[in-house]
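Researcher: Good morning. I'm working through a list of sequences from a screen, and I'd like to move beyond sequence-only analysis. For each chain I'm collecting a predicted structure so we can compare shapes side by side. This is the next one on the list. No need for commentary yet; just the structure.
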Amino acid sequence: MGLEDSYVLPRNYNEAYHLTGDGVAVPVVRHLAHHVFEPVLAASARAAKAA
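Model: Good morning. Structure tokens for this chain:
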């Protein structure tokens, strides 16, 4: 999963559409992990340590 910035999309619209749908999953998950999941887990770990 994931596409390099230099990747050339297929000429067929349907193939390109499906390919880009799979290709954006990695950046989306990385963003969610960095901005949502990791901060929540860090706060939870700090709370558990303080208890």
